[in-house]
UniProtKB/TrEMBL annotation, chains A, B:
<dbReference type="Pfam" id="PF16884">
    <property type="entry name" value="ADH_N_2"/>
</dbReference>
<dbReference type="InterPro" id="IPR045010">
    <property type="entry name" value="MDR_fam"/>
</dbReference>
<feature type="domain" description="Enoyl reductase (ER)">
    <location>
        <begin position="17"/>
        <end position="332"/>
    </location>
</feature>
<dbReference type="InterPro" id="IPR013149">
    <property type="entry name" value="ADH-like_C"/>
</dbReference>
<keyword id="KW-0560">Oxidoreductase</keyword>
<dbReference type="InterPro" id="IPR020843">
    <property type="entry name" value="ER"/>
</dbReference>
<dbReference type="InterPro" id="IPR011032">
    <property type="entry name" value="GroES-like_sf"/>
</dbReference>
<dbReference type="GO" id="GO:0016628">
    <property type="term" value="F:oxidoreductase activity, acting on the CH-CH group of donors, NAD or NADP as acceptor"/>
</dbReference>
<dbReference type="InterPro" id="IPR041694">
    <property type="entry name" value="ADH_N_2"/>
</dbReference>
<dbReference type="InterPro" id="IPR036291">
    <property type="entry name" value="NAD(P)-bd_dom_sf"/>
</dbReference>
<dbReference type="Pfam" id="PF00107">
    <property type="entry name" value="ADH_zinc_N"/>
</dbReference>
<protein>
    <submittedName>
        <fullName>NADP-dependent oxidoreductase</fullName>
    </submittedName>
</protein>
Amino acid sequence: MSKLTNECIRVASRPSGIPAAEHFRRTSEAVPELGPGKILVQNQWLSIEPAMRGWLADANNYASVPVGDVMRSLCVGTVVDSAADGYNKGDRLMGWFGWQHYAVITPDAIVQNISTTDLEPSLYLGVLGLNGVTAATALDKLGQPQAGETVVVSTAAGGVGSCVGQLAKALGCRTVGLTSTPEKAEACKTQFGYDHVINYKTDDIAAALKDACPDGVHVYFDNTSGRISDAVMPQLAIGARVVICGTASISSWDPAPMGPRIERILLTRRARMQGFIQFDHMDTYPSYVRQLEDMVRTGKLHHREHITDGLDTAMGAIQELYQGQNLGKRLVRL
Amino acid sequence: MSKLTNECIRVASRPSGIPAAEHFRRTSEAVPELGPGKILVQNQWLSIEPAMRGWLADANNYASVPVGDVMRSLCVGTVVDSAADGYNKGDRLMGWFGWQHYAVITPDAIVQNISTTDLEPSLYLGVLGLNGVTAATALDKLGQPQAGETVVVSTAAGGVGSCVGQLAKALGCRTVGLTSTPEKAEACKTQFGYDHVINYKTDDIAAALKDACPDGVHVYFDNTSGRISDAVMPQLAIGARVVICGTASISSWDPAPMGPRIERILLTRRARMQGFIQFDHMDTYPSYVRQLEDMVRTGKLHHREHITDGLDTAMGAIQELYQGQNLGKRLVRL
């Protein structure tokens, strides 16, 4: 196996805002011999996540990737060689294998074994992966939507948002999605089943929300912060729950940008606002995946993928994500 | 009974900011005959609450008092005459009897019968009343402090804050109080048992908090919003709980003043921020009063009262409260 050459994308420098291709570099190196307990995985799919901006940021972050390291990424790959009990050549795995062709890992890097054969493996990086599970877990544990309530999603067509909308709809909620282009708005309506779709770039957000949410907003699933949130917050219903799952509209938090204070809204509406990070909830990951697999099989959970081919296309992909150029889960196929 | 004359303080106009004496007027009128089911109460104690500013505000409020009405207030009074089953002359009651000498009420205005004889009745407007019960309920249900955690209170010497500090201390927490004068700081240390006291008018709040909270802030019990909160929020610990119980430092919310955005803090710390209004929790009021009575009896819960005499002194009292002139629960004795 030592004859294999690995191609990797490493962190070249720490971006101050959104990571671009220039913050990465490609390296070529020999794949090391497998030590005991190790597994050699060949990646087929790499994931591009909005959270990667946070992993590359210095300040206020929970999990920085050091400069020089292979870029952290969830991937789907196949076991090529194994010196670890319970893992065999040909096993399909999803886990933290990084932006590279080959990864030598220990089992703690594995998020899940993909044992299904009827579902596309790439789904385990999207609708059946971190996106879908984040949506299901955060909506269930923090959002706690009840049938008949109104659920507003701030990135309605995105990987997480599109799942939130469909999960809330399946629970009997009225769903309202905010998105940025007519193409995404169309997908929100036809594919993701939103009851109302608001284009936050062209519509008067506050007025459109008032029309779409006559009883107020019971659950606000927020992936953006910024001016979308500023329009949603004053329309919270009594007892509303706000799930903070991302802050995609703000490019730098050092120092924190100013916005309208929200304490009075939280007080008068007895509302709850809470931050969510999936890594705190990995114990319940498998059970949410089962639930999502069932919904995909029965046609209740739709998804889109935006795929580019080749390792090098990963380098600019985070920036493209923040420019809103993708429609659906952003993946790199190797 | 119809010969009795009632003196009342009524709402004269709606203040745009903090209510002052000019927003009230005194009226004199006959006490009406008692109809069936009614109770005539003679007030002995009137309560002055920070929340009264909200009750008098137009916008974004949950419970406005109409202009012309007797000012809403919790009071302690004695039954003078009763045409309601279960209530007899001489009974001591705490409830919504208003800023007036006499109130003709129905039993739904009563918050509780005061059946204890070993505790001063005025306590049922403070440490054993809405203040104490708010502190106990919000800390328990929303703050959920654990032994060894750090609890920060933004109005440490106030009616609610002083109870929060003592309750948290009794649970084994490290308590840090913010207050505004050396006199209040002294009371926080000697009477309310805070481990650390910060004068938010003279100290560097952020630096003082960093010294006082080396493990971060696990529970922030906020009665102020504003610059105190701006210093506390970045020091939240992972999994912190923020209880929004009041917004005393902000005089107008229309429009909402600007402050540093907090979404990123909530996300990276997986923190929860929630508004609390005691009126949502009246079912558990009696059980928290029992708990507080026991603590008062055993000397574990101290309090201060700031008393003025005569109905007219109520009119300027809300403004005085916001000017920080009081030390302890603000009461008017009739």
